[in-house]
Amino acid sequence: MNRIERIAKMEKALDASRTAISAMQTALEEYEAVQDDWKKLSDYYGSAQWMRDFEADEAGKLPKDLKRGVLSEDAVYDLLIENRELVFRMARLVAGAIEKNTI
Hints:
This protein is an all-alpha fold. The protein has 2 domains: 1-33; 34-103. Helix content is 77%, strand content 0%. The protein has helices spanning 3-33, 35-44, 48-58, 73-99.
């Protein structure tokens, strides 16, 4: 690879990295912004209040047009698992960056 090709290749790497880092910063800001809501949702799911709300839904006591995915047994559970996997993925990414000395 000659100098021009190398510089062009590294320039593409710089641009791609800049774009990815900017997107990650935005995503992390959004993720951080919902942490209080996430904690409330996590605490609500499976609580006695959630069970009462779930039973009210099953008994037809909630308005039909009320969005209530939170009462789905799978929606919140799946999101809890997804979040856990994401946290572990981020931890592995950070550990790898430290190990490779890329930070």
